[in-house]
Amino acid sequence: MLRFVLRRLALIVPTFIGVTLLAFALIHLIPGDPVENVSGERGMDPARRARLLHEFGLDRPLAVQYASYVGQVLRGDLGHSLTTHDSVAAEFLTLFPATVELAFFALAFALVIGVPAGVLAAVKRNTIADYAVMGVSLTGYSMPIFWWALLLILFFSVQLGWTPVSGRIAVAYDVPAVTGFMLIDTLRAGDPAAFRSALSHLVLPTIVLGTIPLAVIARMTRSAMLEVLREDYVRAARAKGLPRWRVIVVHALRNALIPVVTVVGLQVGLLLSGAILTETIFSWPGVGNWLIHGVQSRDYPVVQGGILLIAAIVIAVNLVVDMLYGVVNPRIRHA
Amino acid sequence: MPSARHPNPRSALRAEPAIRYPSRLAEFWRAFAQNRGAVAGLALVGMLVTLALVADVVAPHSPIEQFRDFELLPPFWHAGGNLRFPLGTDAVGRDILSRLIHGTRLSLLIGATSVAISLTLGCVLGLCAGYFRGVTDTAIMRLMDVMLALPSLLLAIAVVAILGPGLINAMYAIAIVLLPHYVRLTRAAVIAEAGREYVTSSRIAGAGALRLMFATILPNCAAPLIVQATLGFSNAILDAAALGFLGLGAQPPTPEWGAMLASALEFIQRAPWVVTSPGLAILVTVLAFNLTGDGLRDALDPKLRRSAA
Question: Which residues sit opposite A80 in a β-bridge?
């Protein structure tokens, strides 16, 4: 097992180097003058330009610049935002819990509905229920989620007035950010009204972000269940007189969940992609929204640092999923 | 040479006129047509392609002409609607139906261009990685790992941040995002095929590396690539619309569906129809390609059916 872990760890080193190269290249490939881009000033005189070139270290050879960039990254220094002048790493860390909170609920929503729906479709194969689940999940899979968000806002927020349109909590509540997770912070503050407000703000973004993972999980559960239901041990369990539901839930589903767990792990990238759109529409103060603002305001340190950190998170999560998979399935470990 | 007493069973079959083998196309169609959803999807794709081709003739108005007397007109079935603008008009009085029809052309063009670029590049890179192995393989695959480490929309945004916003750059960005999938598929298929007898015999017959790669091996890896390319269309259309929506793709007044949605945001309460129709167009188009792709997967390669996710 240790060898497996070490080998997987060794494999991510080149990937991570590649990601730092990409993030480093970003600053040098963007059109326009690098000094003007980095300093955020336009049309400066040559003397100031030369001084800034030196100050930013942009007059050194590229290899040296890259080495010093990697050194900075390893020390956790990702530069400062051009608009707020705050540390990029600190801004990311402040906003990241909001994205995690949203992604967590979206994934939970997708699992709680997707797995039973997939099981239902597999057990009732080729019935109305199966067609309905598969039809809805294919539609969900094809859904432009930014439009889906607008429809939900139009119906639930504008027409019915059930949920707030945007944000994380009503402005009336001032909750000290201890953990950064709004639901936990409001509970800690002992303010049930604030908690309810935070919860109601979470509903629509959760549905929007969870829609595509839900569709993927339902389809995956269905095909894994169909596979498992054909196995001899399922027939044996039925033959020895176990009730049908018990065979489905205990014998079949447990084994069908192995591929589903892998798929869930691979949803992280999808969730973060979706989070960019969802957060933008709902003005959710997370890293996706922050990154889009960075791109739109040409705040390159933010874009560079954000891309690097998100890639690092995706790599780390994939590594953990891989290892968990190795624990669950020994065949992978020894391959 | 088969003796008279033990005739070759195949030649005996061939001599029998009563048995006709279906052509490969007919066989494929039989398998494909079993899936009614796939046939519906293909029909829809056909209609959309036709619509894109004849957009100039079918569209009642120019997609960018502004009828200033008819701003935010509702669709004809609403009170105050006008049959001259069947799906209503947007905030500057442009006919939504005409914009949607021209948007079909744009979306299909984005899909076709990005898929063509990444499919070509992906095949070449995948062939090189799978055929030469060693350092070439490692270099190409590690690069693809880096690209896969970034969420697709984030990678597209990074590329657009470098190239600048716009429709053409969005196509490049999407082509880059789709690339790793084709490289991986081609490489895996090449590695599986490269050891087969027909490749060895072709090599013994004197075929060079290029001929082996492109003429011998590649056609036998086509099935998964065709499936992936069809599904790539839907990804490309979705991502292009997302970029357009974020203001990083097609720029106004281009009638791109995502950009149309973005410019309609402020009127969502007063005129919901400016928001509903472009999104519906995206959904229907993506759905059509996904249905077709699923059907192709089942028909072309039954082995792939398991990974239907």
Answer: A87
Return the pLDDT at A107: 92
Structural tokens at position B226: 């065709």
Top residue of A13, A28, A142 to mutate, by most chain B CBs within 10 Å, is A142
Q: Are the C-beta atoms of residues B165 and B251 closer than 8 Å to each other?
A: yes
Mean pLDDT over each residue of chain A, to the nearest integer: 85
Contacts of A280 in chain B (CB under 8 A): 246
Question: Chain B residue closest to A294 (CA)?
Answer: B161
Query: Contact, A271 vs A214, CB < 8 A?
Result: no
For B306, which of A15, A30, A223 is closest by C-beta distance? Answer: A223
3-class DSSP assignment, residue B255 = coil
Q: What is the ipTM of this complex?
A: 0.84
Q: Which is nearest to B155 in space by CA: A82, A144, A295?
A: A295
Work out the pLDDT band at B4, boundaries 50, 70, 90. very low
| Residues in chain B closer than 8 A to A148 (CB atoms) | 279
CB pairs A-B closer than 8 Å: 139
C-alpha B280 chain-centroid distance = 18
B145: nearest CB among A15, A142, A277: A15
Residue type, B15: A
pLDDT at B10 over 60: no
Q: How far is B287 from chain A (nearest CA, A)?
A: 5
Give B127-157 pLDDT, tens digit per residue. Answer: 999 988 899 998 999 889 888 888 888 889 8
The pairs formed by B133-141 with CB atoms below 8 angstroms and a separation of 24 or more are B137/B187, B140/B183, B140/B187, B141/B183, B141/B184, B141/B187
Element (H, E) at B97: helix B96-132
What's the confidence (pLDDT) of residue B303? 55
Q: Cα–Cα distance between A225 and B270 in angstroms, integer?
A: 47
**Whether A273 and B161 lie within 8 Å, measured CB to CB:** no
Overall average pLDDT of the B231-255 stretch:
90
CA distance to partner chain B, nearest, from residue A310 (Å): 7
Which among B151, B248, B279 has CB closest to A310? B151
Residue A40's pLDDT is: 63
Say whether A285 sits in a helix, a strand or coil: coil
Q: DSSP E strands: which ranges in chain B?
A: none
Q: What average pLDDT score do residues A101-117 get?
A: 94
Provide the sign of the torsion angle of the four alpha carbons A128, A134, A136, A139, taken in this order.
negative
pLDDT over threshold 90, residue B77 = no
Residue A247 has pLDDT above 90, yes or no: no
What are the φ/ψ torsions at residue B198 (nearest 5 degrees)? Answer: -65, -30
Interchain CB contact of A269 with B (< 8 Å): yes
Residue B226 to residues A158, A170, B215, B233, B300, Cα–Cα distance (Å): 43, 50, 17, 11, 9
More confident residue, A173 or A156: A156
For A14, which residue in chain B has the nearest alpha carbon? Answer: B142
pLDDT score, position B11: 53
Q: Is A15 on the interface with B (CB under 8 A)?
A: yes
